[in-house]
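To the wet lab folks,

You asked to see what we're planning to order before we commit. Fair enough. Below is the target structure as tokens, and below that is the sequence we designed to fit it. If anything looks off to you, flag it before the synthesis order goes out.
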């Protein structure tokens, strides 16, 4: 695999992971502010943030954008890694 491709995939994955983590933290803060205490404390584990943002999409629009765009970038990164390793 070419070096430029490796660096591009690494940067794409890093940005996706950062968006997902920051969006999860924002959704935890948002859930605690809206008195959804169970989701608020569970969102610090990062993965319940996907469920919270899907359920309360209209209320948590900004954290949901971060979480879902981070997931999309991480998915694209995974597919690119899979393709580059199999070719």
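Sequence we intend to order:
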């Amino acid at each position: 695999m070419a070096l430029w491709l490796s660096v591009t995939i690494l940067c794409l994955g890093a940005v996706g992971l950062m968006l997902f983590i920051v969006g999860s933290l924002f959704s935890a803060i948002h859930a605690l502010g809206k008195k959804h205490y169970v989701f608020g404390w569970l969102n610090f584990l990062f993965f319940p943030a996907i469920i919270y943002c899907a359920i309360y999409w209209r209320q948590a629009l900004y954290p949901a954008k971060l979480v879902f765009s981070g997931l999309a970038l991480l998915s694209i990164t995974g597919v690119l890694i899979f393709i580059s390793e199999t070719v």
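Structural context that might help your review: The two ends are 9 Å apart (CA to CA). DSSP finds four helices and no strands in the chain.

Thanks,
Computational group
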